[in-house]
Here is the input.
Amino acid sequence: FKGERPVHFQEMGTVESKVYERDLLPPHVVIAGPTIVEEPACTTIVCPEQQVMVDRFGNLVITEVSK
Here is the structure.
């Protein structure tokens, strides 16, 4: 966990979102949105009704969370 940053979502307005460094996320970790995953080549935004998991190969897998 690196900090927090405001992110604007059209449906919800501005929401404080946790920021993570991708290289520091271990395999199988699951993080609920809203969140930001940063790396040198890109930034991944995970919306409030989503979650992101790091699979065993290091890929980010984003899925919808049931309401």
